[in-house]
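Workshop exercise sheet. Pairs work together: one partner reads the sequence aloud, the other fills in the structure field after running the prediction. Swap roles for the next sheet.
Pair: D.N. / O.F.
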Amino acid sequence: MSSLNSAIDNSSDHASDETHDSFHGKLTNDFNTYAPTKNERALNIPTRSAPRLHKPVPVIGWGAFKIGRNLGAKYPKAFEIPSEPEALALIHQLMNDGVCLFDTAPAYGLSEERLGKVFAKITPTQRDHLFISTKVGETFVDGASHFDFSPAAVTRSVQHSLRALHCKSVDAVFVHSNGNDQDILQNSGCVQALEELKKQSLIGSIGFSSKTILGGELALKHELIDTVMLEIHPDATDMLSLLPLAHSLGKAVFVKKPLASGTLEPKIVLPWILAHKHITSIVIGGLNLDRLRENFMTASLANQ
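Structure field:
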């Protein structure tokens, strides 16, 4: 199993928490099949709910950016994408450890496809225990991001994601904003397209990953949107002003980039984030299994 170089993610919605991002910890499962066994050391990750979210969500989950893409990621150092056996083994081990929230996107390269190779082998009951989210609006082709928020592109994107993930439906789809939040929300028709897919039971909840406070406010006030994804941590507190509005409207708040691209201490920051009771869940990235387990445990204990 190869070692991956250090990397700090400034581009994905869930920057890696690891300053030395490599595989550590024993990956015990056979990556060709998913046959979880009773794991006495499994993480007992609590859940939180919001009235507009269609089901409870773990207070922390895994962002799967780094198993799929390493180009155009604004890392200070180059890093290797894990091989497919390594990536599948990591996904299996996280599931065996009790991780239930998996966040991905079409713009994350091989991420959806690799997750799908695991999800294709789980039972309906196992699928029901997972919270799977993906995104629309951004693709990554030939080393560059391309954005299309038109209804047709959004519909194609969700259909492609469902095929790649081997899922009949996903639990949430977030609009992957390019920063023009207001224009996307008011003029593109993307949210209305997602509502049509929701009516077909292809997605559970409609979300918006905002880059601006105004965008977050508009998304929360949008009658069709159920949840937002915001960057919140001790060095980025502006979005905290939106929490009362989210709570008053019954909408869920997911936190992206919680450790400011690996520059903040998880044992301090994760409890700090979850102390804000109107935050529903944290999405954290990385490949270091030991460190991921430690961070999941920190968040789980903080919620008690």
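Discussion prompt: The radius of gyration is 18 Å. What would you look at next?
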